[in-house]
Design goal:
Blueprint (H helix, E strand, L loop, with lengths): L4 E7 L32 E6 L6 H5 L2 E3 L19 E6 L2 E5 L4 E5 L5 E5 L30 E8 L5 E5 L5 H8 L17 E7 L2 E7 L26 E6 L9 H15 L1 H4 L3 E5 L16 E2 L8 H18 L6 E2 L9 E4 L4 E4 L1 H6 L8 H13 L2 H8 L6 E4 L2 E4 L10
Parallel strand pairs: 1-3, 2-4, 9-11, 9-12, 12-13, 13-14, 17-18
Antiparallel strand pairs: 1-8, 2-7, 5-6, 5-8, 6-15, 10-11, 16-17, 18-19
Amino acid sequence: MFVDRVRLTARGGAGGAGVSSFQKQRGKPRGKPEGGSGGSGGDVVLEATDSVSTLLQVARSPVQRAGDGSHGEGDLRHGSRGDDLVIPVPLGTVVTEGDGTMLADLVEPGQRVTVAHGGRGGRGNASFVNERRRAPSFAEQGEYGSEVEVWLEMKLVADAALIGFPNAGKSTLISSVSAAKPKVADYPFTTLQPHLGVVEVADRVFVLADIPGLIEGAAEGKGLGHEFLRHAERARVLVVLLDPSPLQELPPAEQHRILVAELERHSPDLAARPRVVAVNKADLVSDPGPVPDGAFVISAIAGDGVVDLLHAIADAVEGHKHEAPDRPGFVLHRPVRAGYVVSNEGDAWVVSGRAAERAINLADLTVPEAADFVATRLARIGVEDALREAGAQPGDDVRIGELVFTFDPFGDEEEE
C-alpha cells in the first residue's frame, strides 16, 4: 500500500525519579546523602532514509512513544536514559504542525528532526547538597515527555515528472526507459500511486516520476491525480505527455491547455518550471493534428523518438540545475519559549509553563524542607514578583500544574 500523508502522535519518554537516600552509618541516623538522579526520557526522532518509500509504517502505528528513563537509586546510582525512538521516513518527507507551521523538510539521507522531547530525569538528594544544605531530605520527580501531533507528507524527490491525462502512456514510457514497473493497461486511472525510475541515456542520468493522470478540475479535487500533484512539486522539469489516439475525446492541443491550467491552479511556481512536451502513440496515429510548438512525437511502446525525448529532458534538467541549485532540506529551530505565564481564572491564579512546573517537581512537598525549597525556587525564577505584578494578594490560591498553593510571599531568598 502506498501512503503519502499521515498524522503522527509522538510522545517523548518520561524521565526517571530521583531518590532521597542516605549512607547508613552506625550511630548516625542520617549519614551522607547518596540519592542518585533519574535518567531522562528518550526523544522521538524522524530520520530520512532511502530504505523506505512510503509512510505505511507510520500509518499502521500512528501513536508512538520513546523509552522512559529509569529511576535513580541509593549509593549514587543514577538511572539510565530512555531509548530514543527513531522512525524512518522516505526522502522528501515534510513535517508540519496542525496549524500548518513547517517543522522540517527532510530530503537528504540521514537528515533528522526531533518531534517530541523526553522528560528530564529528577535529581536525587545528593544533587542538592551545598554549603548551607548539608543533608537535604528531598528529591525531584521525573518529568513527563512532550506529546505532539504532526502531519507527515511525502513529496517525491525527482528531476522530472510525467504529467498527462489518464491512459496517455506515462506508465508505459517510464517502464520502457527505467527499471520502474508500474501497472500498465488500456483503461483510465491505471496508475493509482506515483512511481520513480532512474533513467540512463548515453552517459547522463536523471530521476523520472510517473504522476497519476490528471483531468480537468484536478486542482479542485476532481479525479485521482489531484492527490498526487504535490509529488510533482520538487521536480525540476515537467514532461507533458499528450495522447492523440481516438480513446481521448480531446485533441492534444486542448489537453495541453487543460494540463497547464491545472498546474497553474495548483501552484503557479510549479507551472513556471521548464516543460518538455511529447505527443505519444505515434504507432497508432499517423497524423496527431495540431500540437504545441516544439513537441516531440514518440511511441513509448515502440521506442520511436524516445531517445531524443530523453536527451531533451536531460538538457532541461541540467539547465535548471545551473539556474536553481538543489535546495537542501531544513529543520526549524524554534526560539525558547517563556518559562511561565501568569493568568487569573476567577477563583485562583494559574501559573503555567515548564519552568514553573519544574520548580515544584519534588517527590513530597509535605516535607517542610522541600516546601521551603520550592518557595525559594519560585521566587528565584520570578514567579513571586510576577504574581505580585498581576495583582495577587497574600492568601490567594495559586495553581501550578495539579497543585494548589497559598500565596505567601517572603523576602529572604536562599540560593539553590
